[in-house]
Design brief:
This protein is α/β, with parallel strands linked by helices. It has a single domain, classed as CoaB-like (Rossmann fold), CATH 3.40.50.10300. Helix 1 packs across helix 5. The two termini are 14 Å apart. Bound molecules: cytidine-5'-triphosphate. Cytidine-5'-triphosphate binds next to helix 3 and strand 9. InterPro entries: CoaB-like_sf, DNA/pantothenate-metab_flavo_C. This is DNA/pantothenate metabolism flavoprotein C-terminal domain-containing protein. Pfam families: DFP.
């Protein structure tokens, strides 16, 4: 079984020394890579900039990228041959329209940046998904959690979406624990307790494997 995982943040450069980014640590995506590799899968981990070291497991190939465009290019090259896609990355929704070739100098009292939409990696690859491929997304929501997550599941052609609510203490960014709810395309919903991210990853991988025809 081949698995593609995106993980971590993306950094969108403004000039040679600055970028727009976010607080994603990559921990959930890396934990999923370990859990899939332990289950015998061949994993390609496409990782944005993180402080984590490349997983040592021989079943995991780590590809390092910075921007959403680079993450898309790396993922698109791997996706057609992968049985499972897991989009755990916190991709920047927008990037600066222009990257200044030299360091932007301090000038007026305000500075306006123009941003343009980034490629939606999950949605774009979703349009190429074959019937036997299984796609998993993440949703980090603050309100109307289930409705928003179900809308993303449909729009991005996910078979399963992992919902993190920012209302749950200990869940999401900057924690070693996570509390997730799994929503599936057939309407199933599974609510898990707050657990260490490595254990959450095992729960998610076990659920995905149970949905794959050759593992049933
Ligand atoms: N995703 C992606 N590429 C993007 C943005 C998101 O692959 N450019 C993936 C994420 O990895 C995640 C899922 O899509 O699996 C949901 O991302 P999210 O940012 O919550 O969705 P958005 O469509 O950007 O919705 P929102 O308006 O809530 O930001």
């Amino acid at each position: 079984m081949r698995v593609l995982i995106t993980a971590g943040p993306t950094y969108e450069p403004l000039d040679p020394v600055r970028f727009i980014g976010n607080h994603s640590t990559g921990k959930m995506g890396y934990a999923l890579a370990e859990a899939f590799a332990t289950a015998g899968a061949e994993v390609t981990l496409v990782s944005g900039p993180t402080n984590l070291t490349d997983p040592a497991h021989l079943g995991i190939k780590t590809l390092r990228v910075e921007t959403a465009d680079q993450m898309y290019a790396a993922a698109a090259a791997v996706a057609p041959a992968a049985d499972v896609w897991v989009f755990a990355a916190a991709v920047a929704d927008y990037k600066p329209r222009e990257v200044a070739p030299n360091k932007i100098k301090k000038a007026g009292d305000t500075l306006t940046l123009e941003l343009v939409k980034n490629v939606d990696i999950a949605a774009t690859l979703g349009r190429t998904k074959r019937a036997e491929q299984f796609s998993v997304g993440f949703a980090l929501e603050t309100n109307n959690e289930e409705v928003n997550a179900r809308e993303k599941l449909a729009r991005k052609k996910f078979d399963l979406i992992v919902l993190n609510s920012l209302r749950d203490p200990g869940a999401g960014f900057r924690h070693d624990t996570n509390k997730v709810t799994l929503l599936e395309a057939d309407g199933q919903m599974t609510i898990f307790e707050l657990k260490p991210k490595a254990v959450v990853a095992q729960d998610i991988v076990r659920t995905i494997l149970a949905r794959l025809p050759h593992h049933a």
